[in-house]
Amino acid sequence: MLSSCKENTSAKTERNGEPDVYNVEDDNAKMNQAMEAAKNSVQEFQDALLSDNPNFEFFAIKQKFEAIEGTEHIWIQDIQLVDTDFMGIVANEPVYAQKVKLGDTISIDRSNISDWMYYDEGKVVGGYTIRVIRDELSPEEQAQFDDENGLIFK
After folding, report:
1. Which of 16, 93, 126, 141 could disulfide-link 137, Cβ–Cβ 3.0 to 4.6 Å?
2. pTM of the model
3. Cβ proximity of 62 and 94 under 8 Å
4. How many Cβ atoms sit within 10 Å of the Cβ of residue 11?
5. What does the alpha-carbon distance between residue 114 and residue 104 come to, in Å, rounded to a whole number?
6. Which portions of the sequence form the region Disordered (predicted)?
7. pLDDT digits (tens, 9 = 90+) for 3-34
8. Cα 76 to Cα 64: distance, rounded to the nearest angstrom
């Protein structure tokens, strides 16, 4: 399971048995650049999804959802392309957003995509917002983050 994100606050929300939610101020320049890079490269994700490359697996998209206060960015996994729409299953238990829940199958709103990722031979491709969060951690915290999330970065 991957961590989700919430805008408009700067504390981390730890959850027992669930991935942490990393809260990010909505004016965080690095995070906003990462989300823009992800949006601008969705075609790369789609091409990989459709490639049938056996080295590519665990396709996921992070989508922005309206929440009580601000927005929450939640990972959607088991991505499929149906006609021109991405479909998938909500992979995180929302903390703030109330219109979706863990396990819901949804159609992804392309205008609300904030990140995407997949594994290439077990290594993360994409994951723009994850990299921003990870880069701000100490080396020890990065190792713990990687271990908790099962991630290997190129």
Report:
1. 141
2. 0.83
3. no
4. 9
5. 19
6. 1-23
7. 445 454 446 666 566 655 666 666 779 999 99
8. 11
